[in-house]
Design brief:
Oligomer: single chain
Number of strands: 0
Largest sheet: none
Keywords: Plasmid
Number of domains: 1
Amino acid sequence: MTDFVVHVVLSAHVDEFDMTPLTIRKLSKGLFNGRSGSQKNLVELFGCEGRTRKASKRTHELVDELAERYLNDAKRLMAKTESDIEAAKRKYRSLI
């Protein structure tokens, strides 16, 4: 999920998007039906020690815009991922 958010969604908007753990989490939830991944990973990747300012209002508006724009791509990614998981389960079951 985080790879999709960073490489597909944010790569085109990196200059206007304030990447904080909270904004990435909100974007991930908007894209992946309420799922956001590991909070620990988000803090490790996007946290900034000593940060005191909040993300800009524009960033929060952009989160909603990007979630809407890329929702279908995210759904396709999740469907493929779930299909791959099921295929791996079937293969594993056939081997035991």
